[in-house]
Design a protein that fits this description.
By secondary structure, this protein is α+β, with helices and mostly antiparallel strands. Helix content is 49%, strand content 10%. The protein folds into 2 domains: 153 residues, no CATH class; 147 residues, no CATH class. Helix 2 packs antiparallel against helix 12, helix 4 packs across helix 7 and helix 6 crosses helix 7. It is globular and about 65 Å long.
Length: 335
């Protein structure tokens, strides 16, 4: 069970550990609930089947706006060259042009090096196309299997076959509502969210993996661990999301990400809420404030069985046992 799943399960190793060591973290969610009521933007209701995919598309688009170089290559590899090129250029990137680099003739955008060229500031046709491509990435999310890698050609073919009956022009009436909603969310980010998130720092890490992939966070900006959530009523999920953020922070056993703040960005509300880790630990406990490193060490022991089980499953999937050969026929003289 991943950290994201454990965060919502009171019986999980994560929640049991947090309840024992940080029993008063509800005080943080109460404060965040108050802040969530004071937001500059509002959401749009979408079909239930589209909600999760819309949240993923928003996460990808925001991440690609903040990072100096593209990420999510595992998902981009499912898109056609035209879609991938449109998405990266629409997100403000361009192919790097090094003076002394040889012209290798490489044209596939997946094989090029991309650098930041600017930050889109409006919502024109190019941005709607970019949002459509991000929506396409959500289909790739459902198909991607990092433990059963296949060629880029096969990935693109798979997505093309699966989505052929769903391919739609973003002007079509039956799908326009989804892109309109995503466009509305993007506008809220441009007006309010971009400034808030950019102020956290210049370094951006997209989808950082922790404990060998047992936990995959949304992004790190500066030294802040950020989760992006796109729900109309965020107060209902604050407890689970704080558990999730704490789980990721505790999984960073070697302090590789140098996290000193946890943050929650509410997509529909264009609202960023942050909490320094030291303050979070102080508020969540009685008595002396625990240090982060000893907590990480204790959590590692508490979660190790779950991590090992997941790691074993992934190794078995990546390296399946050889197919047993049929017994060789016995040699003898035919009668």
């Amino acid at each position: 069970m991943s950290i994201a799943s454990q965060a919502a399960n009171p019986a999980s190793a994560l929640c049991r550990f947090l309840d024992a060591r940080l029993p008063h973290r509800g005080l943080i969610t109460e404060e965040w609930a108050r802040q969530a009521g004071e937001t500059p933007w509002s959401g749009i209701a979408v079909e239930e089947d589209d909600r999760r995919r819309l949240g993923l598309a928003a996460e990808y688009r925001i991440g690609l706006d903040l990072a100096s170089t593209p990420g999510y290559w595992n998902l981009l590899s499912f898109l056609s060259p035209m879609e991938c090129n449109s998405l990266l250029r629409g997100a403000g990137y361009r192919p790097a042009n090094y003076e002394h680099a040889a012209d290798t003739g490489t044209r596939d955008p997946l094989l090029l090096e991309w650098v930041r060229d600017g930050h889109p500031s409006g919502l024109g046709e190019a941005q709607r196309i970019t949002l459509v491509a991000c929506w396409g990435m959500t289909q790739a999310h459902e198909l991607a299997d990092p433990y059963n890698p296949v060629s880029v050609e096969m990935r693109r073919s798979l997505l093309a076959h699966v989505s052929s009956h769903l391919r739609w022009n973003h002007h079509s009436a039956d799908r326009r509502g989804v892109i309109d909603a995503l466009s509305h969310l993007w506008q809220g980010y441009l007006r309010h969210g971009r400034e808030q998130l950019s102020a956290l720092g210049e370094r951006v890490v997209l989808a950082p993996e922790l404990a060998d992939g047992f936990g995959v966070a949304d992004l790190v900006v500066g030294r802040s661990l950020v989760e992006i959530k796109t729900v109309l009523e965020p107060t209902k999920g604050l407890e689970h999301w704080l558990n999730q953020l704490l789980g990721y922070a505790l999984l960073d056993w070697f302090d590789a990400l140098r996290i000193d703040t946890v943050a929650l960005y509410l997509g529909w509300q264009a609202k960023l809420m942050t909490m320094p880790v030291t303050e979070l630990l102080a508020v969540s406990t009685t008595g002396p404030t625990p240090a982060l490193e000893p907590l990480r060490a204790d959590f590692r022991q508490a979660i190790q069985a779950d991590v090992d089980q997941t790691h074993q499953w992934r190794l078995n999937k990546r390296y399946p046992p050889p197919i047993a050969r049929a017994p060789a026929a016995e040699l003898g003289t035919p009668t």
